TrEMBL record:
Name used for this protein in its record: Actin
Family: Belongs to the actin family.
Signal peptide residues on this chain, from the entry's feature table: none
Organism listed in the record: Naegleria fowleri
Matching Gene3D superfamilies: 3.30.420.40, Actin, Chain A, domain 4 (3.90.640.10)
SMART domains: ACTIN (SM00268)
Alphabetized PANTHER family for the sequence: ACTIN
InterPro entries registered for this protein in UniProt: Actin, ATPase_NBD
SUPFAM superfamilies listed in its UniProt record: Actin-like ATPase domain
């Protein structure tokens, strides 16, 4: 079902970038110019450390925007960032070299919202300006399938990838999709323990099947047809 394949060009790096931006805005990290070669090593060191913070400390907000009050929803906007800055609770994070960062717990939750509401975070006019959030992407993908398959697909939503390891992701995806489908549709979101490597595991199983052998692309085919041979042999 090629028409059901959807893509969201957002991932773990975007969550890390959002958290890094918030830490810099709060003064937890020194500001830097990404175009300045003298500061690039410092930037990459900060990015690597923020990646570890994201993996250890970040979580997904359980409530959907509809479930949150208008006031709480308004706090998601970067334009109102300073209005609630002083009211946020903080936690300490000890760096490997012994330094201590003061992390805003609200930031640790809200940076993951970029996957659900990218339009609230990305700059207007960028190539990612028209990105669809994760909820709408799931619903669109299922609705593009045959009508008699949709109920089964909504009942078997499987999470995979590093971002899905963040706490509350399973509950949030379930609640988001429930808001978009009829009440008669049963939603079930599955989060396998091995979901960090699910794509690789699935790929290894698929390529080991005898029925997959005709889909292998030879060097000769690639040189003759070019990159488009991938779509010709795999998405038919």
């Amino acid at each position: 079902m090629p028409s059901c394949i959807k893509r969201l060009d957002l991932g773990g790096r975007d969550v890390i970038d959002e958290l890094l931006k918030r830490l810099m805005e709060r003064g937890a990290l020194s500001s830097m110019n990404n175009n300045d070669n003298k500061n690039m090593n410092h930037y990459y060191q900060c990015h690597d450390q923020v990646k570890k913070i994201k993996e250890k400390e970040c979580s997904i907000m359980k409530e959907t925007p509809r479930m949150r009050s208008h006031q709480c929803d308004d706090m998601m906007s970067s334009s109102t960032f300073n209005r609630f800055k002083s009211s946020s609770s903080f936690k300490q994070y000890v760096l490997p070299e012994g330094g201590v960062l003061q992390l805003c717990e609200r930031d640790l939750q809200e940076c993951g919202e970029i996957m659900f509401r990218p339009e609230r975070f990305l700059q207007i006019g960028t190539s990612a300006d028209n990105l669809t959030g994760l909820r709408d992407l799931i619903v669109e993908a299922v609705n593009d399938a045959a009508v008699d398959c949709r109920k089964d697909l909504f009942g078997n939503l499987v999470l995979s990838g590093g971002n899905t390891l963040m706490p509350n992701m399973t509950d949030r995806v379930s609640m988001e999709v429930i808001e978009r489908v009829p009440a008669t549709i049963r939603i079930k979101v599955v989060a396998p323990p091995e979901r960090l490597h699910s794509a690789w595991i699935g790929g290894s199983i698929l390529t080991s099947l005898s029925t997959f052998q005709p889909q292998w692309i030879t060097r000769g085919e690639y040189h003759e047809v070019g990159p488009s041979v991938v779509f010709r042999k795999t998405l038919v």
